[in-house]
């Protein structure tokens, strides 16, 4: 076989290979073109709609979170308003009750000053006592209660110590006398009880 014939044979093989490659490229282009034709324009529209749906869902999630926060804030405002109304209802009578306390004090003093041996005074005292009990019962219905700490431990939150005195056999810081009762309105102190409190005996120096 000559050198010329060998060269011609290689050239034919190369040509055949090039044809095969070209045919493959053409088929690939046709396939890609067919695929592109398949997704357009309907698939493109679907893709656009899916993107729009995702964006809308994200917006709805944000708005839902805002609504939840707004509802929680409204609930807090409503609860605080209810608490304020309840406090106003409980303590609206505070000033009025405080004005009644001197009247109660005077009636108690009048009863305490009565000479029980005098029948005339005794009858008057009984009338005053009935009036006092009616008044105390009426204010008690509205949450006004007396603070009468006789023989109880001294409590600075409810009692006002007017003096201190050493009393044998009585523990220190015990209320030994109530000079004026205190009063509370629904648990809030409107006047402390004025009291006398026991104190400890002075220590004796036994070192001498």
Name the features.
208 residues; alpha+beta; Nucleotide Exchange Factor Grpe, Chain A, domain 2; 2 domains; 3-stranded antiparallel sheet; 4 helices; 62% helix; 16% strand; rod-shaped; disordered N terminus; protein homodimerization activity; GrpE_head; chaperone; cytoplasm
The CATH homologous superfamily of the largest domain is named: Head domain of nucleotide exchange factor GrpE
| Helix/strand class | alpha+beta
Distance between the termini: 147 Å
Radius of gyration: 50 Å
CATH architecture of the largest domain: Roll
The percent of residues in helical segments reads 55-70%
In order across it, which strands form the biggest sheet? 1-4-5
Calculate the mean pLDDT score and round it.
Answer: 82
| Beta-strand segment tally | 6
Overall geometry: rod-shaped
Count of discrete alpha- or pi-helical segments spanning 4 or more residues? 4
Main β-sheet description: 3 strands, antiparallel
Low-confidence stretches: 1-7
CATH class call of the largest domain: Mainly Beta
What's the CATH topology label of the largest domain?
A: Nucleotide Exchange Factor Grpe, Chain A, domain 2
Order of helices and strands: HHHHEEEEEE
Strand residues, percent? 15-25%
Number of separate domains = 2
Pfam families: GrpE
Keywords: Chaperone, Coiled coil, Cytoplasm, Stress response
Subunit structure: Homodimer.
Coiled coil: 46-80
């Amino acid at each position: 076989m000559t050198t010329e014939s060998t060269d011609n044979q290689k050239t034919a093989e190369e040509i055949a290979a090039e044809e095969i490659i070209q045919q493959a490229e053409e088929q690939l282009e046709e396939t890609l073109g067919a695929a592109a034709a398949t997704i357009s324009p309907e698939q493109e529209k679907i893709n656009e709609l899916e993107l729009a749906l995702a964006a809308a869902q994200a917006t709805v999630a944000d708005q839902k979170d805002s609504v939840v926060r707004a509802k929680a804030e409204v609930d807090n405002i409503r609860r605080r308003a209810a608490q304020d109304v309840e406090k106003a209802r409980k303590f609206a009578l505070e000033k009025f009750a405080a004005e009644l306390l001197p009247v109660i004090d005077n009636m108690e003093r009048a009863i305490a000053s009565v000479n029980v041996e005098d029948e005339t005074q005794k009858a008057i005292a009984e009338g005053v006592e009935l009036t006092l009990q009616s008044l105390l019962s009426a204010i008690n219905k509205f949450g006004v209660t007396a603070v009468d700490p006789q023989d109880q431990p001294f409590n600075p939150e409810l009692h006002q110590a007017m003096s201190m005195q050493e009393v044998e056999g009585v523990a220190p810081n015990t209320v030994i006398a109530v000079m004026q009762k205190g009063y509370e309105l629904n648990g809030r102190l409107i006047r402390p009880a004025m009291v006398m409190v026991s104190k400890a005996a002075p220590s004796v120096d036994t070192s001498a």
